[in-house]
TrEMBL record:
<keyword id="KW-0325">Glycoprotein</keyword>
<dbReference type="InterPro" id="IPR045857">
    <property type="entry name" value="O16G_dom_2"/>
</dbReference>
<protein>
    <recommendedName>
        <fullName>Glycosyl hydrolase family 13 catalytic domain-containing protein</fullName>
    </recommendedName>
</protein>
<dbReference type="InterPro" id="IPR017853">
    <property type="entry name" value="GH"/>
</dbReference>
<dbReference type="Pfam" id="PF00128">
    <property type="entry name" value="Alpha-amylase"/>
</dbReference>
<keyword id="KW-0812">Transmembrane</keyword>
<dbReference type="InterPro" id="IPR013780">
    <property type="entry name" value="Glyco_hydro_b"/>
</dbReference>
<keyword id="KW-0472">Membrane</keyword>
<keyword id="KW-1133">Transmembrane helix</keyword>
<dbReference type="GO" id="GO:0005975">
    <property type="term" value="P:carbohydrate metabolic process"/>
</dbReference>
<feature type="domain" description="Glycosyl hydrolase family 13 catalytic">
    <location>
        <begin position="85"/>
        <end position="478"/>
    </location>
</feature>
<dbReference type="InterPro" id="IPR006047">
    <property type="entry name" value="GH13_cat_dom"/>
</dbReference>
<feature type="transmembrane region" description="Helical">
    <location>
        <begin position="46"/>
        <end position="67"/>
    </location>
</feature>
Length: 576
C-alpha cells in the first residue's frame, strides 16, 4: 500500500484530501494525492492481495479475462459491453418439464434485449453425465438433452439471438472431460490418437510391491488427485472429481482436436467463448514431483497455459477476427503481464473482486484498493484488451445472499459505471437471494408473482426503484460518451463512500458523478472540486438513485448517503 493510501486508511489526513485514481484514454494510469500534489506511477507498485469465496480470506484471486483483436469501432462492442450469463436449465421453461431449455430462452430474448446488455453467455450446454452439474462434458459437439432435442434447436437460438442484435458466447471446459467421454474410453485402451489425451502415470511401487500414486497432488476438495484405472493399469489425474479426468494439454493431438471443437461452434454462429479453470490446464512435466502442503506449484499457473490460450485466440482470429475470448483464471495482476507479451493473440485476466473482496468494514477504502490494483496491472496491456467487472457467477451464491440486498444494489451500481466490460449472472439484476449452487436445486427465474421471498420480473418492472429498473437505467447510461470513454477520476473516498467522475474529452460532453456507500454508517460528504483534472460543481441533476427520493437537484456540498445507497448525478463539463 502506498504511503498516501496508508495515511488515508488510518484517517490521519483531513477530510478534504483525496486519493485519486486517474484513468485516461492513453492508458496513463497514476495516483494523484490532491492534498500533497504527489503523483505516483501505478506500474511502480503492484499490490498482491488474494481471496476466494469468503469476504477477506487470503487465497488466490478468482478472475475473468477478455481479449479480442484490434479492429473497427463497430466490432469493439466488448470494450464497454455488458455480458449476461445464463444457465439455460434454470432460466426459462419452454416445454413444461420444470427445467429451463432453449425454447424458454428464445421466448425471453425480448426481456434480455430490454435489459440493455450486449451479449448472452451460456453456461455449459453440452452432453454431460451430470456428476458435477454440466462441467463433466461427455461430448463437446452435442447438446444436453435436458435443454434441447438437437443441434438444430441451437442453430435456431443463435439465429434469434442475432436477430435481437445480441452476441453469443459459449462456456467451454477445457481442463477436463467426463470419464464417459469417447476420448477417455479410447485413451483407457491406448487407442491412437487418443492414447495421450489424458494425464496417465504407472505410479510407484511401495515396500509391499503395491502401486501408489506418483505424487501427493490433491483435488480442489483436498482428496487425492489420482485414481487407478484397471483397463489401462495406470493412474489418471483429476484435479476435480474422479469423474472429470484432466486432459493432457502437452499432447499435440489433443490441441489439434480442441481447435476442431472451437471451429465447430464458431461455424454454428458463436461469437466467442468463456473458458473455465484455465489456471489448471497444464501440470508440471515431471509427474513424480510432490507439492508443498497447500501450495499447488506443479498443478496451477504453469507458463504453458499462456501459450495454449494464445493459440486458441490465434485460431479464432483465423475464423472471425471480431470474436471474443474470456478466461476464468486466478492471480489476476501477475498474469496480466504474462498475457501482455502475446499482444496479438493473448488474453487479459480481469476480475470478480467487487462481490468477493469487498468487506463492509472497509467500505470505500476497500473498493479503492481493488480498483487501484487493477488499474496498476492494466498499465501493461495493449489496445486490444479491456477490464471485466463481473458480479455473480453460476458456481457462487447470489450477491444479495452474501452481502444483503442494499449492498448488492450499491455493488451493481459500481460495477455498471466503472470503465470496461460488465458481466452479470442472470438473476442478479433482480437482487435474487437464493444460495443454491446446483441447477437441479436452483429455482427457475421468477418471471411471475409468487409467494417466495424474491420479487418477480412481473412485480419489479413497473417499480422504478426495483433492482431491475435501476439495472436498466444503468445499462442505458453506459451508452453515453462519458461511459464509453475510460476516463475516470475518484473524488471522495472514506471508510464508507467510494465516488468518482466519469467523463469524455470535449466541452459539450456531460459528466457524471457516481457515489456509493458500501460501509456500515451514514456518511455526509463534500464532493465539490474546483481544482484538479475534473471540476465538480455544487449542484447537479439526479439521474439514478437506488433509494426513495423526491430530489431532482442534488447539493454535492452536503450529499448524505446511508449504507447501501448509491447515486449517479450529471453536470455539464463547463460548469466552473
Amino acid at each position: 500500500m502506498s504511503e498516501t493510501r496508508m495515511r488515508r486508511a488510518n484517517g490521519s489526513q483531513p477530510p478534504s484530501d483525496r486519493v485519486q485514481v486517474v484513468w485516461s484514454d492513453e492508458q496513463q494510469y497514476h495516483l494523484e494525492y490532491s492534498g500533497q500534489g504527489e503523483k505516483m506511477p501505478l506500474r511502480d507498485t503492484i499490490v498482491m492481495l488474494m481471496f476466494a469465496g469468503s469476504l477477506i480470506s487470503l487465497v488466490p484471486i478468482l478472475a475473468l479475462g477478455i481479449a479480442a483483436p484490434e479492429s473497427s469501432s463497430e466490432s469493439l462492442w466488448w470494450k464497454n459491453g455488458v455480458v449476461y450469463e445464463v444457465e439455460p436449465v434454470s432460466f426459462a421453461d419452454g416445454n413444461g418439464d420444470a427445467y429451463g431449455d432453449f425454447q424458454g430462452l428464445i421466448a425471453k430474448l425480448p426481456y434480455i434485449r430490454d435489459l440493455g446488455v450486449s451479449a448472452i453467455r451460456l453456461n455449459p450446454i453440452f452432453r454431460s453425465q451430470l456428476s458435477s452439474e454440466t462441467f463433466d462434458i461427455s461430448d463437446y459437439r452435442d447438446i444436453n438433452p435436458v435443454i434441447a432435442n438437437s443441434i438444430d434447436e441451437f442453430d435456431q437460438l443463435v439465429s434469434k439471438i442475432h436477430e435481437f442484435g445480441l452476441h453469443l458466447l459459449l462456456d467451454l471446459v477445457p481442463n477436463h472431460s467426463s470419464d464417459n467421454h469417447a476420448w477417455f474410453n479410447a485413451s483407457r485402451h491406448r487407442q491412437s490418437p487418443y492414447d495421450d489425451f489424458y494425464v496417465w502415470h504407472g505410479g510407484i511401487r511401495d515396500s509391499a510391491g503395491g502401486r501408489q500414486s506418483p505424487n501427493n497432488w490433491l483435488t480442489v476438495d483436498g482428496q487425492s488427485a489420482w485414481t487407478w484405472d484397471d483397463s489401462r493399469e495406470q493412474f489418471y489425474l483429476h484435479q476435480f472429481s474422479q469423474h472429470q479426468p484432466d486432459l493432457n494439454w502437452r499432447s499435440e493431438n489433443l490441441q489439434k482436436q480442441f481447435l476442431k471443437v472451437i471451429t465447430f461452434w464458431m461455424k454454428h454462429g458463436v461469437d466467442g467463448f468463456h473458458m473455465w479453470n484455465i489456471d489448471h490446464l497444464v501440470e508440471a512435466e515431471d509427474l513424480t514431483k510432490s507439492e508443498p502442503e497447500g501450495r499447488p506449484l506443479f498443478t496451477q499457473h504453469q507458463p504453458e497455459n499462456v501459450k495454449i490460450t494464445s493459440s486458441w485466440r490465434k485460431h479464432m482470429d483465423s475464423i472471425d477476427p471480431n470474436s471474443v475470448l474470456l478466461l476464468d483464471v486466478k492471480d489476476t495482476e501477475s498474469l496480466m503481464a504474462k498475457w501482455a507479451s502475446y499482444q496479438a493473440t493473448g488474453v487479459m485476466p480481469a476480475n470478480r473482486l467487487l462481490s468477493e473482496q469487498i468487506a463492509l468494514e472497509c467500505g470505500g477504502i476497500c473498493v479503492n484498493e481493488v480498483i487501484e490494483r487493477i488499474s496498476r496491472a492494466s498499465y501493461h496491456l495493449p489496445f486490444n484488451y479491456t477490464v471485466t467487472w463481473a458480479l455473480g457467477e453460476i458456481n457462487l451464491p447470489r450477491v444479495a445472499y452474501e452481502h444483503g440486498r442494499k449492498t448488492a444494489s450499491a455493488l451493481q451500481m459500481l460495477q455498471m459505471t466503472l470503465p470496461g466490460m460488465a458481466s452479470t449472472c442472470s438473476g442478479e439484476e433482480l437482487g435474487l437471494t437464493d444460495s443454491t449452487l446446483s441447477w437441479t436445486q436452483r429455482p427457475l427465474m421468477p418471471w411471475f408473482k409468487s409467494s417466495g421471498d424474491d420479487r418477480s420480473v412481473e412485480e419489479q418492472e413497473p417499480d422504478r426503484l426495483s433492482p431491475l429498473s435501476v439495472y436498466k437505467q444503468l445499462t442505458r447510461l453506459r451508452q453515453e460518451p462519458a461511459f464509453k470513454s475510460i476516463r475516470m477520476n475518484t473524488t471522495v473516498i472514506n471508510e464508507n463512500v467510494y465516488s468518482f467522475v466519469r467523463y469524455a474529452v470535449g466541452k459539450f460532453y456531460t459528466r457524471y458523478l457516481v457515489a456509493v456507500n458500501l460501509g456500515l454508517k451514514e456518511s455526509e460528504d463534500d464532493y465539490v472540486m474546483q481544482a484538479g483534472p475534473v471540476a465538480v460543481p455544487q449542484n447537479a441533476t439526479l439521474l439514478v438513485a437506488n433509494f426513495p427520493t423526491d430530489l431532482k437537484i442534488v447539493n454535492l456540498k452536503k450529499l448524505r448517503l446511508k449504507p447501501g445507497d448509491g447515486v449517479v448525478v450529471e453536470f455539464p463539463s463547463n460548469t466552473l
